Amino acid sequence: MITLALSKGRIFDETMPLLAAAGITVTEDPETSRKLILATNRPEVRVVLVRATDVPTYVQFGGADLGVAGLDVLLEHGSEWGGAGLYQPLDLRIAKCRMSVATRADFDYASAVRQGSRIRVATKYVSVARNHFADKGVHVDLIKLYGSMELAPLTGLADAIVDLVSTGSTLRANQLVEVEQIMPISSRLVVNPAALKLKREPIRALIDAFERALPQD
Length: 217
Ligand code: PRT
Ligand code: MG
Description:
Elements lengths: L1 E5 L3 H12 L15 E3 L5 E5 L5 H6 L5 E5 H11 L5 E5 L5 E8 L4 H6 L4 E5 L2 H11 L3 E5 L6 H5 L4 E6 L3 H5 L2 E10 L1 E5 L1 H6 L1 H14 L4
Parallel strand pairs: 1-3, 1-4, 7-8, 7-9
Antiparallel strand pairs: 2-3, 4-11, 5-11, 6-9, 6-10
């Protein structure tokens, strides 16, 4: 049996065409089914549905043989585990967005940076944010949040946020502006190294099929 860990929503949706290219179709709809283990047309392949941030954990500890996770999630997970236990053979180029710094329009980020002011930054991505501001030599107080980062500058909790941006409409709707792009983000295939050894043929075949089906850009 090969177990693939996916999160519901965009990662599930955007992984389906790649699976289809490998001849695999999931036979249940995760949005209507309450099942957490989904069968596929191939009796030896199943999908487990986990929270996006739990995908690396499932794969690292063998709850799944492989999974699909955003680079954002992998960087935060890696900072906790030193990148151990996960083989990352492919950038799937799906669920693309970017990690950015955003502030209220009336906050002068550039001059705060220039003047060496201490900036309060709220984020779910503490490790990425810490590295980014350390590289720039900017002093920050990081405030860890678990959601709705956009609210932090609006309430005075923070001067800035580090969050994912794709269309920019969430920022716009909350009158925030993107003042700096930190890095492009996409989802990666992650594989448990022991599983790759034990089930080399079928896992290799899956990786190769994914690779052939990748979006061309
Ligand atoms: O939603 P849930 O709390 O269950 O978990 P999750 O947010 O971790 O999962 P999900 O499915 O929302 O995100 C899974 C992965 O998709 C992330 O780890 C990213 O790698 C990737 N991804 C791609 C995104 C976005 N685009 C994205 N736009 N993840 C989140 N967003 C959010 C962003 O945080 C912000 O709130 O969408 C909002 C911004 O979108 P725009 O289009 O308004 O700019
Ligand atoms: Mg989400």
